[in-house]
Amino acid sequence: MSSPAYHTLDKARVSKAKRSFTTRRVAAKDMTRLKVCDWAPSPGDLMLARVEAIGQHARIELPDGRRASLFPGNEIIVCCGSRYAPDQFEAELQDGVWPTDLVAGGGLASCEISRHASKKPATRLQPLGAVCGENGKPLNVSDYALARIDKRLPIKVVLVAGTSMNAGKTASAAALVRGFSQVGYRVGAAKITGTGSGPDPWLMVDSGADTVLDFTDGGYASTFKVPAPELEAMAHNLIDHLAFEGCEVAVLEVADGLLQPETAALLASNSFRLRVFGALFTAYDAMGAVTGAEWLRTNGYRLLGLAGQMTASKLAAREAQHATDLPVYTLSELADGPTADAMLLRRDACTRAS
Q: Which end of the chain is flanked by fewer CB atoms within 10 Å, N or C?
């Protein structure tokens, strides 16, 4: 293909560029062309960019999990997409605009709209073009998603949700993985909404999960702005892949809180709710726990208990337990095999609301 719109992208340049975690499923051998004009970025498209100025993200996570330091002049390969992170960045792709902001360390390029007051401006990028294959089409992470499994496979699904970022969801999910593993279950773990990043999946691996997946395996660098039907289909497929791999229990984590639009839409889905055996809700404080528990009950979920940052205060934990009539678990309790196993057997006060 010979055209002013394309440059050859040779293996040496691809190899030298710092590839991000979000691109991990894309085969490097397929990166052969660089479209340098007439490109309207779509969510999930791969982009080659040059680092212009270091801001909030001074490192980028590579596909193998190593966090590589960034310096002005470095070339990186990232995904285009939007981000919703109350404690970090709000960012969206804009029609016809090449994204110039690195808004996530896992490798997401977007256009910053707002950021948390504690964060620096986004690391600035100079877009160089869309990474393409031989056919000249921009490579997209959706092209490398796990194959669709059409048959629903049996597996006991435990959902971990929370009030917002940093409420204790990931730590609680990892503790549950340890607990279930200790009593002999084959455990799968998956993060089904959020922004592509490696620390959460790596923690699940380290906690003893037999199979770990996330939405990047489902074809998304970020789930912000993804239509609810697509999210449902992706979530079901990840669950089925965990079951196909022989997992008996799946621990699923959703990003951010119940007010995040895509997370809320997915959890309000009847087809998704029917896949979930029970939910563990994490919160900063008792009031957040009460509100979240009520939301989940109203939407028909069986509550297995409460956890999260509030367990740092015994008083807050007692408040939440008294107000909801739900057990409150510390991380050490969730990681205890018999305790975790008992959660799968509870059907009394935690039964779904009618």
A: C
